[in-house]
């Protein structure tokens, strides 16, 4: 029976449900947190502090967090992180009910939620390949479903729900998000336990973190997979920084229309996640990744030149489709080829590179729009994406992908063949 014919294990359904519920809570908070901050202050810098606080854990602790995940039981790490986030949200909910919310409190909550997200996301990324026995086809199917649910919940259902719940009371969206984390924790705790990765020689946490980062930078395929979101974030944040201004001044789009414009991108993301497995199978994962990168760059170029809202919406939908497919194919490939004992560190290193790149994109977009024109950041972003496509095309080629998958399969077979020998040795010793 081929891997395409095999079914996803029952445990995946619980993991998918847990992440879907959690993504709904994230979408609620994505809309509610800045609106809550607006009830406390109108100072743009104070609002920026709250917005930036959630990204700081990845910048400060990304690789170290990955090293810790590689030391800990991944299922336990996930449910403890979600339980802690559920309990944490009781603090601002109480403060909101008592009318004592403040910017420092909201910033601290955003930071700690981000820290919990770092551990949960890294552990989930490392747990999934163990659950699916590193089967590339199953990983693509699983990540397609996970990505689709995340986009639907955090991009479509969550934000409107957050705004509606806030109208019922400032504490209501906080309590709803806490409930989503609590349900996710219960579901994750019911998942099957996985054997821990083979323990390494005892060494310091910093040395282990450095080893994980070095593993990414020494491997051209993994480095190519990491450069895609890092350079992409510079480009996309440059676009995002000026998109509202561009839509209003150049396309004549009002506030309601801008929401529809963002919905077009999310719709494309759902489509891209849905067809990612087909693209990978039809073109090969490496070629598919190169094609989606080119599509993103050309779509942003189309957005920059868009004469009206309809062309702009179509361009964003096409860009969203490219991003959606990429965010299925790239993590699935990484999960299939990285050794289990390094998975947390490799995943967190890649995510940290992407997060560190984002502020540069925001600064670039603002500077180019101020110095030249509001369309200039969009043209610059398109050029950056197309240049990145050319640079990473050979790094993530089909040939490299196939070689990495063969090496991973050989490692896995070797580990499985040596397991009976270790069991026999242990029995003789006993």
UniProtKB/TrEMBL annotation:
Residues 403-416 have a biased composition (Basic and acidic residues). Residues 403-430 are annotated as: Disordered. It comes from Micromonospora musae. It is found in: Cell membrane. This is MFS transporter. It is a multi-pass membrane protein. Signal peptide: none annotated. Pfam families: MFS_3. Residues 11-400 form the Major facilitator superfamily (MFS) profile domain. It comes from the Bacteria. The chain crosses the membrane at residues 45-69, 89-120, 164-188, 225-246, 258-279, 286-304, 310-331, 352-372, 378-396.
